[in-house]
Design goal:
The chain has 155 residues and is an alpha+beta fold. The protein folds into two domains: 43 residues; 95 residues, Sandwich (Immunoglobulin-like), CATH 2.60.40. The chain is 23% helix and 32% strand. The protein is built from two helices and eight strands. The chain has a four-stranded antiparallel beta sheet, with no helix packed on it. It has a four-stranded antiparallel beta sheet with strand order 5-3-7-8, with no helix packed on it. Strand 7 and strand 8 form a beta hairpin.
């Protein structure tokens, strides 16, 4: 008798159309319910994607005033979005474009963990351009030139 009840369950051709539609809807609903419950559980166990590490492509210069005649210059290796690449230990040349009476503490510096700080002693209150140019390292970095003006700090 049990065998007959299962066999009649799968004999769809003998059923009236309304019962076939009803059973199809029930099976489809059960499959959707299982998917709606199991897929979020499955995907929640996936590890979250980690953010890619920055890869430096250029140098930046940041200037901070220490006193009226001294400045601190920070040269950094950054990626396209400006994030510091702390894996870089490159060698960089620093120099003033044109005539300048300001003195750099060092003209050839080595980045440590992607950046280095250098002092500038301002002898006259004159405006000049400071350039950082990549010398050596794993991959070339685009250089940068920035304006160094005492007027920026003495207002």
């Amino acid at each position: 008798m049990l065998k007959n009840s299962y066999s009649s369950l799968f004999k769809w051709s003998t059923l009236p159309r309304s019962k076939v539609v009803r059973r199809s809807q029930t099976i489809f609903s059960a499959i959707l319910l299982v998917l709606l419950i199991s897929l979020p559980i499955y995907y929640s166990s996936w590890p979250t994607p980690s953010k890619a590490k920055p890869v430096a492509v250029r140098l930046t210069i940041t200037i901070n005033a220490v006193s009226d005649d001294k400045l601190a210059v920070i040269v950094s290796a950054v990626d396209e979005s400006g994030q510091l690449d702390n894996t870089r230990d490159d060698v960089v040349d620093l120099f003033f474009e044109g005539a300048s009476s300001s003195e750099l503490a060092q003209s050839k510096v080595s980045l440590k963990n992607g950046e280095v700080s250098v002092g500038i002693k301002m002898k006259n209150l004159q405006t000049s351009f400071l350039t950082a140019r990549w010398v050596s390292g794993p991959t070339p970095l685009k250089g940068v030139t920035t304006l160094v003006s005492p007027l920026m700090w003495n207002y």
